[in-house]
Amino acid sequence: MNVLPARIPLLLICAALLASAAQRAPRKTAADPARRWLASLTPAERVAQLVMAPFYGDAPNPKSPEYKALASLVAEERIGGLIVLNRVRDGVVERADPYQMAAFLNRMQRLARVPLIVGGDFERGASMRMTSTAPFPHAMAYAAAGDLEAVRRLGRATAREARAMGVHWVFAPVADVNNNPDNPIINIRSFGEDPARVAAFVRAFIEGAHADPAARVLVTVKHFPGHGDTAIDSHIGLGVVEAERARLDAVELAPFRAAIEAGVDAIMTAHLAVPALEPERIPATVSRRIMTGLLRGELGFRGLLTTDAMDMQGLAQMFPPGEAAVRALEAGNDLLLIPQDARAAIRGVLEAVRAGRLKQERIDRSVLKILEAKVRLGLHRQRLVRIEDIPDALLDPEDLADAARTAARALTLVKNEGGIFPLKEAEKSCWFLLPGSRFSTQGLELRAMLRARGVREIALLDPELPEAEFAAQAERAARCGQPVLAAYVTASAYRGHVDLAGNYPAFVRKILALGKPVILIAFGNPYLLRTYPEAAAYLAAFSTARPSEQAAVKAAFGEIPVTGRLPVSIPGLAPAGFGIMIDTPE
Fold first, then answer.
1. pLDDT tens digits for 136-192?
2. Domains of the chain in sequence order
3. Has 176 been annotated as catalytic?
């Protein structure tokens, strides 16, 4: 007898019950690995997960003290992450090799029970920290070029380069509105002084960096609530932004609001005081009013909050490492970036928990957010770098062309008395190249391009040369047909100013006093004309990157047009948006 028809209703009922049970059962989510990691960690290891320690991107010998120190933090303390920095020797910035860094990171990842999250300040692509990467110009060059699509491509390229070499957390873009010409640490790292334009460029970078799911990174805007209107480098001391709340809302906070709307993953704090937001003279980093009340409460940000480097004097001179860490967490931060002493920071937080000053639930909340970020980045599936795949992501011809195109479009002619730019008789010109330090590589590309064009009078100088040498160079300038000064000045940590280095200022004044029309090219700080207004012609490149050098030479020889516009005003000399247009000859 055929009984199948009688069984059909029963089967349907069973299927319905199973479906209902499946709907009621908790589904596995991407957070499951994060919660499993959290459950496996001791209280000390949970605090350690909030710490990101510095390394220099090389591959030290495992027997070396440097390697042992980092391996101990990873394997014994179980810190949550590492951040790649540049070494500076004799005033020269040393960038890391991607392959060495990847090999080192693979070793560290194998030592870590929970995958490490790796960060990098890749503000102009990975080239800010790494060799063998596309040499993108600084942020202000993109604003001078006026190209939002180029910034989106920069964001996408940055994410691709970062993930290829094992970096997951990009501490960029800079969302500061540089409305103080004397700012010694932001300057060309900012997109400019117009908050709406800065906001648009910040949004474009975030969109680009998030565009490729295969190269997922965390994107971070900095430095909240805005570091553009201070004349003190927070690496050296505590800056103060004196603006009223209404101005802060209209200017400083605008790019951060745009970033939050664009889905930015993280926001970095600033070690500066803002009396309108926090009456106590303390850094925003340790202000609950700013980090939780304003950023979480008013602005509604729900992502990750990270301190700026905690070894910077704007914070470190006020609090020892343990106290600084506790205060940063009390304020609402999730990540403790580069504590002065990682172990002391961990001990300080543990003691605060034991004393009841911090609750374990507060620590766990931040730890879980960081662990969940690691899961979103796919680190629970793949934590090691595929070294053989690195070449696929670096030095992409399209990236190189994009960097060159942006550098050329950024060139802005601010002054041109007598129409001396571009050069009329290039063979009679004499060039004085002023790199930032004795051992810098700045100027080498420029010199090579000039030589290729037949220029014979080229002096690559050193800011520490004796007075007699500078006097001899001034005599050369007096004899030549057209003196050209190429000055390299960028915002640098612990420098405290953005003027020419060493003995250069006196030398430049000697050249300007010769009575000849002088061309001044600023690779970097666009405000240099304020100090040397006697220059007859002034070209701003907004970057020291190699494409900016190449573009400036081409423009000086009339090979490319000059079409950039100032993203900042030069007080008393030129308003924002100004630029003298130069066409190439027919």
1. 999 999 999 999 999 999 999 999 999 999 999 999 999 999 999 999 889 999 999
2. 32-397 (3.20.20.300), 411-556 (3.40.50.1700)
3. no
